[in-house]
From TrEMBL:
PANTHER family: DIHYDROPYRIMIDINE DEHYDROGENASE [NADP(+)]. GO terms for molecular function: dihydropyrimidine dehydrogenase (NAD+) activity; iron-sulfur cluster binding; metal ion binding; NADP binding; uracil binding. It catalyses: 5,6-dihydrothymine + NAD(+) = thymine + NADH + H(+); 5,6-dihydrouracil + NAD(+) = uracil + NADH + H(+). It is an enzyme of class 1 (oxidoreductase). Heterotetramer of 2 PreA and 2 PreT subunits. Belongs to the dihydropyrimidine dehydrogenase family. One of its GO terms (biological process) is uracil catabolic process. The keyword Oxidoreductase applies. Residues 338-366, 367-397 form the 4Fe-4S ferredoxin-type domain. This is dihydrouracil dehydrogenase (NAD(+)). It comes from the Bacteria.
C-alpha cells in the first residue's frame, strides 16, 4: 500500500491533504472535524490583532456560482466559483490561542499537524502573534500575506496589501523568522507580477516555505437586479483557477527545487487535483472551497482517492510524484516536430477539423479529409475538435 506520509520543513505529515485556513478551521471544534475526517493537517483560521479584520468575519458572505456566474441553488457544478467575503479569526489573539492549544492537543492524539496562521497590521504585531503561536505549540506558522479583503479596507495594512509590497513583506518575514524557532511559511497573493522573484526574497528573508497562493479579487453583477452579488466586491476562486496556481508552483519549484518547499492552495477540488498539485511541486495541498461546499468528509474522501490512485499507478511515496511533471516540462525549442495524421479508416469526413485549422493544413478532396503535410505545424487544434476518437493523431512525421 502507498505511503502518503511526507516530511515538510522537518515536520512529519501523515498525508498531504490539508484543510486550508478559512471557516472550516474557524475554531477548535471545526478543526477537530477536519482532523476526524482524515486531513493530515489543518491550517487554523488566521489569528489577528486587527479588530477590523475580526469584525469583517461577523459579516461574512459567500455564494457558489455556476459557469455563468449566477448563484447556484442546490446543484453546484464541478467548475464552480466561490465568490466570498470574510475576515480573519473572530476571537482576540488571547482568546483564539485557547482554540489553538486545544486543537494542538487533539492533533497530537490523532497524528495530525496544526499549522498556525497569523495576520497583523504592524511589524511588531506580526512578531508578537508569531511568538504567541509558537508558545501555543504549533510546529509551523503561516503568515497570511494573501487575504484579498484588506484591499477594500483603507488603513488596514495586512493580507494582500502586504503581499503586494515585496520589501515590506520581506521585512516582516525576516522579523518573524528571527523571533521564532519554528519554520515559517509565507502565504502569498497571486495578484503580483512575479512570484518567483518574491519567493526568492522571502526565502532570503528567512521563510522556510511558501504557500502558493491565496485567492483573487473579483466583482460579479447580477444582471436581473443591476446590483452586485453579496453587496459588492469580494474574493473569487474555485477549481477553475487551478492551472494558474500550478503554473506558479511550477515556476517556484523550477527556480528553487527542494530548497524552498511549497504548499499549494487555490483550485484544488479533489484527489485528482491534489495529484496535479503534487506533480507540479507542492508537498502539502490545502483545500477550502470544496470543503465549504461538501463538508468536512470531503477531506477524507480525497485522502482515500489519493491512496487508491497511488496504488493503481504504483507510486510508493508522495516523494515519487513530487514535482515530476515540472521536471518533465521542456523548453519550447526542445519540442519535437510533429504533424497531424488522419486515420482514413475511421474518419467520418465531418469537416470539423477544417474549421479549427488556421494553417490550411486540414483539407477535403473528393469528400475525404486529408492533411497537407507541408502546411501543418502540428498544433493539435484539429485533434481537440475531432468527434471520432483516434481519427486524428499528432505525431512525428511519418
Ligand atoms: C470564506 C473564506 C475564508 C478564508 N479565510 C482565510 C483566512 O482566514 N486565512 C487565509 O490564509 N486564507 C483564507 N482563505 C483562503 C483559503 O485558505 C484558500 O487558500 C483559498 O480559498 C483557496 O483554496 P480553494 O481553492 O481550495 O478554495 C479563505 C477563503 C474563503 C473562501
Amino acid at each position: 500500500m502507498a505511503n502518503l506520509g511526507i516530511d515538510f520543513c522537518g515536520v512529519h505529515f501523515k498525508n498531504p491533504v490539508a484543510a486550508a485556513s478559512a471557516e472550516p478551521t474557524l475554531n477548535a471544534a471545526n478543526m477537530k472535524k477536519c482532523i476526524d475526517a482524515g486531513a493530515g493537517s489543518v491550517i487554523a483560521k488566521t489569528m489577528t490583532d486587527s479588530s477590523d479584520m475580526r469584525e469583517l468575519t461577523t459579516r461574512a458572505k459567500w455564494r457558489f456560482l455556476n459557469e455563468k456566474h449566477e448563484v447556484c441553488h442546490g446543484k453546484v457544478p464541478r467548475a464552480f466559483s466561490l465568490y466570498s467575503r470574510s475576515g480573519l479569526a473572530l476571537e482576540t489573539p488571547k482568546e483564539f490561542m485557547k482554540e489553538i492549544r486545544e486543537t494542538v492537543k487533539y492533533a497530537e492524539q490523532n497524528d495530525a499537524v496544526v499549522i498556525g496562521s497569523i495576520g497583523s497590521t504592524e511589524i511588531d504585531g506580526w512578531v508578537d502573534l508569531g511568538k504567541q503561536m509558537e508558545d501555543g505549540g504549533v510546529p509551523l506558522i503561516e503568515l497570511n500575506f494573501g487575504c484579498p479583503h484588506p484591499k477594500l479596507m483603507p488603513g488596514v495594512r495586512t493580507g494582500m496589501n502586504v503581499g503586494q509590497d515585496f520589501n515590506y513583506a520581506s521585512e516582516i518575514t525576516n522579523a518573524v523568522a528571527n523571533a521564532v524557532k519554528v519554520p515559517i511559511i509565507i502565504k502569498v497573493t497571486p495578484q503580483v507580477t512575479d512570484l518567483v522573484q518574491f519567493s526568492g526574497m522571502l526565502k532570503d528573508a528567512g521563510a522556510g516555505a511558501v504557500t502558493l497562493t491565496n485567492r483573487f479579487i473579483g466583482f460579479v453583477p447580477d444582471i436581473e437586479t443591476g446590483k452586485p452579488l453579496i453587496y459588492g466586491k469580494a474574493g473569487i476562486g474555485g477549481p477553475w483557477v487551478k492551472p494558474l496556481t500550478l503554473r506558479w508552483i511550477n515556476e517556484v519549484r523550477t527556480a528553487f527545487g527542494k530548497e524552498l518547499p511549497i504548499t499549494g492552495t487555490n483550485g484544488a477540488y479533489d484527489w485528482r487535483d491534489i495529484v496535479m498539485f503534487i506533480m507540479s511541486g507542492a508537498s502539502v495541498v490545502q483545500i477550502c472551497s470544496a470543503v465549504m461546499c461538501y463538508g468536512y468528509e470531503w477531506l477524507g474522501k480525497q485522502v482515500r482517492g489519493l491512496e487508491k490512485f497511488m496504488d493503481e499507478k504504483g507510486y510508493a511515496t508522495i516523494d515519487d510524484m513530487l514535482g515530476i511533471a515540472t521536471d518533465a516540462a521542456i523548453e519550447y525549442s526542445q519540442m519535437p516536430p510533429e504533424k497531424a495524421h488522419v486515420n482514413e479508416d475511421i474518419c467520418k469526413d465531418c469537416g470539423m477539423c477544417l474549421k479549427a485549422c488556421f494553417s490550411d493544413a486540414m483539407q477535403q478532396g473528393d469528400g475525404h479529409v486529408y492533411v497537407k503535410q507541408e502546411n501543418c505545424v502540428g498544433c493539435g487544434g484539429c485533434l481537440s475538435v475531432c468527434p471520432v476518437d483516434g481519427s486524428i493523431e499528432i505525431a512525428p512525421n511519418k
